[in-house]
């Protein structure tokens, strides 16, 4: 069966009856890597892979197997808006504050509310720092919270989260960018987006304006699923099909992250490049016969574009 690429989000709220939650123990085999690229002087991307039960934080160790415990596992990528906007400070604040807020939250809080509240705290940390220091700061955020057989996927900006299942790749997030808005409106074709001169204009960012609206989705996980998070330093150089093919052929998350970054750098490395790859194993059920990814994905909240978009540099 040929592999395919699709996008499961259409920026409309969907209500559906999802399959029962999985309760069997499962784990993530996960790797994360960030690289400055070939043209930038500093790396303004940041990532986090955190066992919220108090265990592993990926740092000097590029790969880990994390059992998904009672409090879950957090994966996140943040792309700072650079130059005078202190992007490296913004992205670091985002992932650090988000992780701390997720760890400190009551385990009785509904998972979607917990994630939204933590992201709002991270946004406020950047906004308050920018206000105090009289700077303009901002950062994207793509975060995946894995818990109890499901994943909550949050988006602010234009970094991305993908799911690979059964040889198919689906984009779980919807870019909050000016060029994506033009694609959605039919003004330009999708294959024109990567080369558009306005591709660096995003419609909201963490800490860039007083408020953010978090786009949030819920995915029921299946055995052998693979989650991929990345900044746009990867997707400007690689197509979705190429990302899928590298991950599927690599065999291991840490090999996939390195090969993806190496390939982006070979093609110019125009921006910082950050990739997290997490394969899922253990006791989760396999996809049911005839089950599509849409059958296991639900849009919880969507984002409506504000008036004045920020520009990434």
List keywords for this structure.
alpha+beta, 313 residues, Phosphatase 2c, domain 1
Provide the residue-averaged pLDDT. 88
Spatial strand order of the main sheet: 1-9-8-11-12-2-4
Distance between the termini: 41 Å
Quickly name the level 1 CATH class.
Answer: Alpha Beta
Structural class: alpha+beta
The percentage helix is 10-25%
| CATH fold annotation | Phosphatase 2c, domain 1
- Let me know the largest β-sheet: 7 strands, mixed
Plain-language structure description:
This protein has 313 residues and is of the alpha+beta class. It has a single domain, classed as Phosphatase 2c, domain 1 (4-Layer Sandwich). It has helices at residues 87-104, 111-133, 178-184, 232-235, 240-250, 253-266, and strands at residues 5-7, 26-35, 45-51, 63-67, 73-79, 141-147, 150-156, 160-165, 168-171, 215-220, 226-230, 273-282, 297-301. Strand 6 (141-147) and strand 7 (150-156) form a beta hairpin. Helix 1 runs antiparallel to helix 2 and helix 5 crosses helix 6.
